[in-house]
Amino acid sequence: MKWLTGAQYWSSKISSQAIEDQLENSIDQSVLDIIRQVKEAGDRAVNSLTNQFDGIKLDDFTVTKDEFAEARDRVSPAFVPALEQAKTNITRFHQRQLQQSWIDSSIPGIVLGQQVTPLERVGIYIPGGKAAYPSTVLMNVIPAKIAGVESIVITTPPQPNGKVNPHILVAAEKAGADTVYKIGGAQAIAALAYGTETINKVQKITGPGNAYVARAKKWVFGEVAIDMIAGPSEICIVADDTAPADFVAADLLSQAEHDEAATPICIVWNNKQATAIQEEMERQTALLEREEIITKSVQQNGKFILVEDLYEAMDIANDIAPEHLQLMIENPIEKLGYIKNAGAIFLGNYSPEALGDYMAGPNHTLPTNGTAAFSSPLGVYDFMKKSSVIQYDKQSLLNTVDAITELATTEKLTAHAQAIQIRKEDDSNAKA
């Protein structure tokens, strides 16, 4: 973990983006080539790319009923009840996000409103690289189901045996996905965006993935909608003296184990507390299965930021706008109003980020890389669209003719003005 003072944090923000830009340009070249192949050759390209990147030759990349049945037999007896409990909590939380159409006719002669309509076809990407995430299946499929999406398909990379991780399949079945395709990478995003002989084009793509998946989502945006361009996982913990050092360390490491690019940050104003947390991190890391990944994440991206007080800590946390923010401080709910930018906020010593990943109910698909400053977690609202509804009767329109004409002519849009004036003239002729 790097150690920074608050002043060093602010000055470190002024840095070159040349290396990052170079990496993105390299990835973009590969991704654009993959997208071109899928657009031109459909299923044939998807099969070829799956063979190239995953070493798998597939006659059919649609998961069959027999494969779903086999998956149910392969998961542990305790897995399904845990999945059902998570599903219940996630469903309960997201049902509160459901938006309704509305109509306002309070002004005589005028009807205004908003029609809320679910998307028809949605594609969800579920990673299958360093780890498989059945929880992510629930977090994406359940809001889409609540919104009323008609067709929900999942793409996820095949395992070396040519099959999909059984936990992902069981989660997909329980959540209510309609179809699962065993394809991954940028080729899966392209197939969802443009369609192939097997896969119907969708209207929106959601779900996290590696750098190639993220860049593919960026390049197909506009052809389809996307949820966000998710970066590596990140956690920021603001900890005072009441936070147990072993708790803080465990929570930092829980995000570091995602991958080497994950970012664990701890903001403290007590040097002794920071030292105790670092010692705990070193002790716990040696006991964890993903020790190598954690070590690289912590060494490359981990930071302790030593500040003057809680309020400087809040300022820096807001500037970071982290994916996950834990306030492990005394009476955290009293300080909640100071937080403006965070994907999810966890209050107190017994609300670890891992609780949000699996069981609490709020969505764990969150904005990363500072985008929490202007973005929100995935929700039911991401799977719905809105249409404005406008109806004026004759007299209501005539009452506003002069005002509309003035605005239209000011903008030199005379055809707009004429579309209004012609109705006024028609009324005058009728009266004559």
Would you write up a description of this structure?
47% of the residues lie in helices and 16% in strands. By secondary structure, the protein is of the alpha/beta class. It has three domains: 23-228, Rossmann fold (3-Layer(aba) Sandwich); 232-374, 3-Layer(aba) Sandwich (Rossmann fold), CATH 3.40.50; 393-431, no CATH class. The strands form three sheets. It has a six-stranded parallel sheet, with helices on both faces. Helix 5 (79-95) packs parallel to helix 6, helix 8 (185-194) packs parallel to helix 9 and helix 16 runs antiparallel to helix 17. The chain is globular. It starts with a strand and ends with a helix. The relative contact order is 0.13.
Offer a quick outline of the entry.
The protein is α/β, with parallel strands linked by helices. It is 47% helix and 16% strand.
Q: How would you classify the helix and strand content by structural class?
A: alpha/beta
Q: In percent, how helical is the residue content?
A: 40-55%
Mean pLDDT: 95
- Global shape: globular
Sheet with the most strands: spatial strand order: 1-11-10-9-12-13
What is the assigned CATH homologous superfamily of the largest domain? Nitrogenase molybdenum iron protein domain
The level 1 CATH classification of the largest domain is: Alpha Beta
**CATH topology-level name of the largest domain:** Rossmann fold
Tally of contiguous helical segments:
17
* CATH architecture call of the largest domain: 3-Layer(aba) Sandwich
For the biggest sheet, the summary is: 6 strands, parallel
Number of domains: 3
Radius of gyration, in angstroms, nearest whole number: 26 Å
Relative strand content: 15-25%
Catalogue the unreliable spans: none
Terminal Cα span: 85 Å
Number of strands: 14
Keywords: Amino-acid biosynthesis, Histidine biosynthesis, Metal-binding, NAD, Oxidoreductase, Zinc
Function: Catalyzes the sequential NAD-dependent oxidations of L-histidinol to L-histidinaldehyde and then to L-histidine.
Protein name: Histidinol dehydrogenase
EC number: 1.1.1.23
